[in-house]
Amino acid sequence: MAIATKITDIVNRKILRRDRDRWNYQYNLGRWEGLGDINELARFSVIAGYAQHLKPNGKVLEIGAGEGYLQQRFDKTKYSLYYSTDASDVAVENGKKYEDEKTKYVIADMNDYAPDQKFDVIIINEAIYYGGSVDKVLGRFNAYLEQGGIFIVSINGDERNADWHRMMEASTFSKIDGTTVVCTRNTFYITVLSGK
Ligand SMILES: C[S@@+](CC[C@H](N)C(=O)[O-])C[C@H]1O[C@@H](n2cnc3c(N)ncnc32)[C@H](O)[C@@H]1O
After folding, report:
1. Does residue 77 share a domain with residue 156?
2. Is the CB of 69 under 6 A from ligand 1?
């Protein structure tokens, strides 16, 4: 990166104090396009596999979905509704070309979003970090789970996430299953939990 670009980048990161502005800035730079790479596919495939197997033709809500790579890797014949939501309007706008009658891209902050209906599966894929705590996020969205509905949560193995793994271990939501996906760049701990 040229020095001038690097300085602009540092200044912008400091100035853009609002979370949404920071994420928009990064999405505008294409900083998160790598999430669409083949070396992230295993994580998305495991999450989609759990959702499609446990709730065939289910209604899916994804929180902090970014540009929607997970939705784009689902078999569309295997869900009846998919809301791909994120706080970044730039990310949501980039995903809107994948919308159809049962697939919606929605701007939503997980800390105050009130969906207009209930879902069979709620997915928080590498985004729970922005909701305060594991049980705070699950507790908020439990109200939007259908009877028998499930959560699927991915938390990556970065050592800075130790507290998040401890919170998941201590969650008051019952675990149905969990697995570890070792990708080229990172390791992901994926947990399936039942609603209350
Ligand atoms: C690491 S990215 C993960 C994106 C996507 N889930 C994936 O795995 O490809 C984290 C995402 O969380 C979103 N985010 C951050 N704070 C949020 C909030 N309060 N509510 C909703 N989304 C948020 C960001 O805009 C970003 O798209």
Report:
1. yes
2. yes
Separation of CA 128 and ligand 1 centre (Å): 8
Q: What residue owns the CA closest to ligand 1's atom 10?
A: 127
Residues 147 and 120 in one domain: yes
Range of the domain at 179: 36-194
Contacts of 52 (CB under 8 A, 6+ apart): 74, 75, 78, 79
Is the C-beta atom of 66 inside 6 A of ligand 1? yes
Among all chains, which residue has been given the structure tokens 């730079």?
29
SS3 65: coil
Same domain, 110 and 150: yes
pLDDT tens digit sequence for 4-34: 666 655 555 554 457 888 999 999 999 888 8
**Is the separation of the CB atoms in 125 and 154 below 8 Å?**
yes
pLDDT tens digits for 95-151?
999 999 999 999 999 999 999 999 999 999 999 999 999 999 999 999 999 999 999
**For the chain, how many structural domains are there in total?**
2
- pTM as predicted: 0.92
Does 136 share its domain with 188?
yes
What tokens appear for 91 in the block? Answer: 């990310």
